[in-house]
Amino acid sequence: MLGAGFRIRAATTADLSEVLETLAEASRWEVARGFPHPWPVPFPEDRVQLGLDRGEAYCVSDPAGRPAGTVTLQWEDLPFWGPRPADAGYVHRLAVRRAFAGHGLGSRILTWADGEVRARHRAFVRLDCLTSATRLHEFYRSNGFRRVGEVAVGGLDCTLFEKRLAPP
Q1: Are strands 67-74 and 57-61 parallel, antiparallel or unpaired?
Q2: Ranges of each domain in the chain
Q3: Theoretical Cys-Cys bridge with 26: which of 42, 65, 95, 120, CB 3.0 to 4.6 Å?
Q4: Is the pLDDT of residue 50 over 70?
Q5: In 3-state terms, what secondary structure has residue 109?
């Protein structure tokens, strides 16, 4: 439960189109606002399928069961973070449908991720976003993350964010 009747559940292969459409909607919105490097539309299906196959992709629904968002929570992230001890969970592809934006759902999804990471006895939640995405930087900072570095991956400059979790 994410509060206010929103639910999060592991996505299955049957949810592939829902996850892809949620990511596409988020990207179209970013393009309309002049975001410099939005996610590709269509988002690479194989990358989403990999998250589904690994049990790392999640669907968020509203109280009526309508799609409201998606997130991927990985347990390692070699391309962005390199080899690390098993001390973190890595948030990727967090997207909230526009109909549900502006009401704190993204923050609630991040809080859910904190709980999942804590349940695995890991101390950090980590994520990356484009260095040019200053609006997202502020969102992550407002949710307790701090900037810890930068990395170039696939020709894109990304900023690394980390949040240390309080012990359970």
Answers
A1: antiparallel
A2: 7-164
A3: 95
A4: yes
A5: helix
